[in-house]
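Example record used in the benchmark description.
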Amino acid sequence: MTKTKLLGGVMMTVALIAGLTGSANALASTPTETVYAKSNAPIATEEAPKPTVVTTKAKEPKSKYPCKNFLVRDMIDAGFKGKGLRIGWAIAMRESGGRADAISSTGDYGVFQFNRAAHGGQPWWNTTKLLTRDYNIMVAYDMSQGGKTWYPWDIDGQGNHKGAYTSVGTYNVFKSWYNKYPSNCLK
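Model output (structure tokens):
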């Protein structure tokens, strides 16, 4: 008697030994059950499958906007637009170079470098999520009130330096990035 169960993707046959002593005749006459293992890994006695090379097109941007800069596209998808988009992009480039996985030695996380000491108690704080581009940009969008105010980064809504806690040199790095905003992303 053979039974089949689905537990994943690899098929295995298992002998049901209910009260049998393990003799060769007993095992030969024992009903078997077909089981599908949870793993796609080959069974130890099987030959490993050869890898399949699949070529795919580049990931289509969520945004219909023709900009080729992934960070700008993701920010547009989050809702940034106009001058707020350009200021936000320059801040993200200043803070992390646009890297989602950036963690500073002072406990700043993600694209916009949210500081653990300053924001760690906020309900939106999640170290793992902050290291994903979409979540980090979404938090920046909310914190900047839709790209209208950038005070947490010591910049006002017009892109001017507030000078409360960053140096002129830090502001100049921001201005440098602001001036390098991708020309094909002007809106």
